[in-house]
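Page 47, continued from p. 46.
Same chain as before, 181 aa.
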Amino acid sequence: MAKAQAGLATLTISQFDKALHDRSAFSCGFDPIDKFLKEALSDHLKSGYLTAYMAARDGQNDVIGFYTLSAFAVSPDHITPPKRPRPPPSIPATYIKVVAVHKDWQAKGIGTALMVHALRKALEISGQIGTMAIVLDVLRDANFVRRAEFYQALGFRPMRDPENPDRVYLSMKDVAATLGD
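Result:
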């Protein structure tokens, strides 16, 4: 569990617990993400596909933001791996499937707080199982440009993946340098 400041709210960001996190009122303004959180998240967790972290105001249960992490592999052709040693056929990575903030809480620093938490969590995981990068897909909707600029400001850069032109990555080396770890 981590505490974060976002605007005037003090947030608690913790791993999803169905008994503690009320998802019923969550709406980020993009129906597929809202449906995923309310209808599919529990099944994905039970199946071991991902883990999820929820942001709530201290002392409250309503989810105001969340993100997910899962294991991933990328082709060395799609990123710039270290020159030595020679990269394996697939490079281990951490995948952020979604980062979303309730529409009433957007533009108040919650997305940034969630991303910093996700970067720290991914860096911690990389020290345990070995991952070279964090990968995510920039959601294509009316807010694509704003979202792409947000990730670019965090240091994410485009992958060379012709099948996923909106996929970006950030090396764990850069994450460690950014976070001062």
